[in-house]
Design brief:
This protein has about 325 residues and is an alpha+beta fold. Helix content is about 45%, strand content about 15%. The protein has 14 helices and 10 strands.
């Protein structure tokens, strides 16, 4: 069994933490996402980061925010969403790219959150029901159709995005309300470098994520995940296929069990992580119990070593 130092070496390799492992193309970035299952945009924890794996000088050295992003590879985050991968705000409100495998694990959690949040607040219900009727909509259209001020819509959408119930993506506005696809998640209506205005298009999770027919018919999550991966890109295959199938074997339609499955998948993505950090990875603190990690360790899905957590081969 690997020691902590050996796990850290494997983490450096698998999470591409050294310059010799820098991502060289968008295809490599997509393979990296499929292999890890989920990627943060910038490094903020043990979860793997797309921009960290680029190992490219920042766009504007010495500045924070956008200026710290990779100089030429920063569009890759949005480009991966254009290839069919979802970007969600469930990493405590921060953008998280998820593969088909991770999206299948998120699905029962977010569907339960959709029901909870719709029942909990009239404003959330109004926005969600409107999207259900009219389909994905730009924030500009929503402000008009729901008679909301910019800050009012922001106050409604932020907690819904944080829990994954609403998924945002950036769209370029060519003129008036005509818009086309493209861009990165989380636009704000600003003028882009291409001369277009950019806005955010909001979708309900159940509009953005399309469960494969097998899953809808009640077939196992493992088979459903495999089917979705084929739908996203039938020609793509990676060395992580066997690992992905294994990690979703115990997935469940019960949100609490799905959260445990997601946590195991996230630990596997990180290879090894400080134990206190795990409870801060996802927005749904109410699914975290004081015995969650203990239960997963006892079940043989995670293991502890020197205040760190790693996934087991059978996890």
């Amino acid at each position: 069994m690997e020691s902590l130092s050996e796990l850290r070496e494997r983490r450096a390799f698998e999470c591409r933490l050294t310059p010799d492992r820098a991502l060289g193309s968008l295809d490599e970035a997509e393979a990296f996402l499929r292999d890890r299952a989920l990627l943060t945009r910038t490094p903020d924890c043990a979860l793997p980061s797309l921009y960290e794996a680029c190992h490219e000088p920042p766009y504007a050295p010495g500045t924070a925010g956008f200026g710290s992003w990779p100089a030429t590879k920063w569009p890759w985050f949005g480009a991966l969403t254009e290839r069919g991968h979802l970007c969600v705000g469930v990493h405590r409100g921060k953008n998280l790219l998820v593969s088909a495998e991770a999206a299948a694990l998120l699905d029962p959690i977010i569907r339960a959150e959709t029901d909870r949040m719709r029942a909990e607040d009239p404003g959330w219900r109004r926005l969600l029901d409107h999207l259900a009727r009219v389909g994905p909509s730009t924030t500009e259209d929503l402000r008009t159709e729901l008679s909301l001020k910019r800050q009012e819509l922001k106050a409604l959408r932020s907690p819904l995005e944080r829990c994954g119930v609403i998924v945002a993506r950036s769209v370029a506005m060519t003129s008036g309300r005509d818009h086309g696809g493209g861009g990165d998640a989380g636009g704000g209506g600003d003028a882009g470098g291409d001369g277009h205005r950019h806005d955010s298009e909001l979708s309900r999770w159940d509009q953005a994520y399309h469960a494969p027919p097998a899953a809808q018919a009640g077939i196992s999550p493992t088979a459903a995940t495999s089917a979705m991966a084929t739908t996203v890109d039938s020609s793509a295959r990676s060395a992580s296929s066997a690992r992905s199938a294994s990690s979703t074997t115990s997935a469940s339609s019960d949100p609490a069990e799905a959260f445990a499955d997601l946590l195991v998948t996230a630990v596997r993505a990180a290879v090894v992580a400080p134990e206190p950090e795990l409870r801060r990875w996802f927005s749904w603190s109410w699914y975290w119990t004081n015995t969650l990690v203990d239960d997963l360790v006892q079940a043989g899905r995670l293991r502890r070593l020197d205040a760190h957590i790693a996934a087991t081969a059978s996890g």
